[in-house]
Design brief:
Elements (H helix, E strand, L loop, with lengths): L1 H17 L2 E4 L4 H14 L3 E7 L5 H13 L4 E5 L6 H4 L5 H19 L4 E3 L13 H7 L5 H4 L4 H10 L25 H16 L6 E5 L2 E5 L5 H6 L1 H10 L4 E4 L11 H7 L1
Helix pairs in contact: 1-2, 5-6
């Protein structure tokens, strides 16, 4: 805990030295914590920007806005349309690079309009070991990742968020809906809507941390090991509902929930 507090002190000092910033704010664990600390340190010299699109569920957008208002943030909502970019919709492994390039370019414009010198994102130290093409876009456009720079891990951010009284401290990890498709499978608004509706339905059944990965007409459900039996118990209800959304086959992944499972094929390809 001592090391964590030292990292927090370094983070506050770093933010103070920035003097002002625009923050890519999604309402998730990391960006909310960064926004809260930055707000405390920089006051009116920080602006949180939430980017909404077909890849960002309406529920997440509403929660992000409500939380920003609750915490007294200066915030702005913008709309991006990465589905007009063929390089993105073709869904290559570097898909996130194209999305983040558009986002950070938009944030550069906003930062200039508000005379704010820096753009920040919520990448944390754990992201260093993950496959993150968006990090390249951040580096190219001069976006800073202060949580990563002071080496705060996800667990530490959750712990500090709890101390700050942030409701996101135990919020399940979230990734944009485009991460639900195998690389090379075309991304469309209709497919994104199917996944969003499928995951929303499963949440009504009490499943909190989950993913519905879409492979053509098949839905592959990922939930933590502790919830596998609960899915089986609700097989009829889940199958019936997901078929009404357009899925033909509904499967349960026996490896359970894990972030970035679509990246596993990349590891196999390089071994």
């Amino acid at each position: 805990m001592i090391d964590t507090e030292k990292k927090l002190t370094r983070l506050k000092k770093m933010l103070a030295e920035y003097g002002g910033a625009v923050i890519a704010y999604s309402g998730g664990v990391d960006s909310t914590f960064l926004a809260k600390v930055a707000h405390d340190v920089l006051q009116d010299n920080v602006l949180m920007v939430t980017a909404c699109s077909a890849t960002f569920p309406d529920k997440e957008m509403r929660e992000a806005i409500a939380l920003a208002e609750q915490l007294g943030f200066n915030y702005k909502v913008i709309w991006t349309d990465e589905l007009t970019n063929d390089l993105f919709t073709a869904n290559p492994p570097e898909r996130c690079y194209y999305c983040k390039t558009e986002l950070f370019s938009r944030l550069q414009t906003i930062a200039k309009e508000h005379n704010l010198p820096f753009i920040l994102d919520g990448a944390n130290f754990d992201d260093v070991a993950d496959f993150r093409p968006g990090a390249q876009a951040a580096a190219e456009l001069g976006v800073k990742s202060p949580l990563k720079e002071v080496e705060l891990s996800k667990d530490e951010i959750r712990l500090l968020s709890k101390e700050y009284g942030l409701p996101t401290w135990d919020k399940p990890s979230f990734a944009c809906l485009s991460s639900r498709f195998p690389y090379g499978e075309q991304i469309t608004k209709e497919k994104l809507s199917m996944v969003e509706q499928a995951e929303a339905f499963l949440r009504t059944l009490g499943f909190n941390q989950l993913r519905v990965r879409q492979h053509g007409q098949m839905a592959r459900i990922e939930v933590p090991f502790t919830d596998l039996a609960k899915v089986v118990e609700r097989t009829d209800k889940i199958t019936t509902q997901l078929k009404t959304l357009g899925y033909i086959y509904i499967t349960l992944d026996l490896q359970g929930y894990r972030t970035g499972s679509m990246n596993e094929v990349l590891h196999v390809a390089t071994e």
